[in-house]
Design brief:
This protein is α/β, with parallel strands linked by helices. It has one domain: TIM Barrel (Alpha-Beta Barrel), CATH 3.20.20. Helix content is 32%, strand content 11%. A six-stranded mixed beta sheet has the order 4-3-2-1-5-6, covered by helices on one side. α2 links the parallel β2 and β3. The radius of gyration is 17 Å and the shape is globular.
Length: 250
């Protein structure tokens, strides 16, 4: 496994600025189709993580604004201002927003974005599943042949640096999917300061959270039907609907 603190892995910060979404896709890897939420990062939290990045020996050069649907954050214009300030401090920085591009409000917000912000549109249309989805709601712990020792390695998206360090209103995680899993599972293991991340702490997060992530199964050669919801996820969804976990804010 590549060092989780390698320059390749630490090239990007991925901010889940809001868990509000207008799609409700069943196999959303933030679990928003089955465990919806209106939660969002505050402007202060976003400014905090950007400031922490600047305090590091090598600030992050790539920032990805994610969700949920990020344009539905009621203060998206202030988020853009904060990011514009950040890019003025970091040479050759790249800032992008990842959107489903669905709905008139989203389309209007996208039109209002400055030219320097790259827009990535997923064009997702199928709420049940399609080529852009895989069975995220299939927890590896519900399938034989997936050993506990393997979880610490994370999935291929982490190993090759496809994703970046995830940040949510509950802290910093090895990836944004891990942050979303924690909001449902309720382990409350987000790191509270960007300068405190280490390979050991990120691997610990993998060990505790990858066991719930369907992406991990695909990496281990198990291909399941797109509509699969395993027993553990059925239990988590039922519990979430009754009482949501209370996590420490970032």
């Amino acid at each position: 496994m590549a060092d989780l603190l390698s320059k390749y892995y630490l090239r990007a910060l991925e901010l889940d600025v809001t868990y509000k979404c207008n799609m409700g896709c069943m196999q959303c890897n933030r679990a928003l189709g089955v465990c919806p939420s209106q939660e969002m990062m505050t402007i202060e939290q976003i400014q905090k993580v950007l400031s922490e990045s600047l305090s590091m020996a090598k600030p992050y050069q790539e920032i990805r604004v994610l969700g949920g649907e990020p344009t539905l954050h009621p203060q998206i214009s202030k988020i853009v201002i904060a990011l514009d300030w950040y890019r003025s401090q970091v040479v050759e920085s790249s800032i992008s927003i990842w959107t489903n591009g669905h709905g008139e409000r989203v389309k209007q917000e996208l039109k209002n974005l400055p030219a320097w912000m790259r827009i990535r549109v997923s064009h997702k249309k199928l709420k049940v599943g399609g080529d852009e989805f895989e069975p995220f709601l299939a927890a590896p712990i519900d399938y034989s042949g997936i050993c506990l020792k393997d979880y610490n390695k994370g999935c291929s998206q982490i190993a090759i640096g496809k994703c970046g360090v995830g940040v949510s209103l509950y802290g910093i995680y090895v990836c944004p999917v891990a942050a979303a899993i924690d909001r449902v599972v309720g382990l409350d293991i987000g790191i509270r300061n960007l300068t405190e991340i280490s390979s050991e702490r990120l691997r610990e997060q993998c060990g505790q959270l990858c066991r719930y992530c369907g992406h991990f199964l695909k990496d281990n050669g198990l291909i399941l039907p797109i509509k699969t919801v395993s027993d553990t996820w059925r239990m988590l969804i039922k519990r979430y609907k009754k009482r949501r976990s209370e996590l420490t804010l970032y």
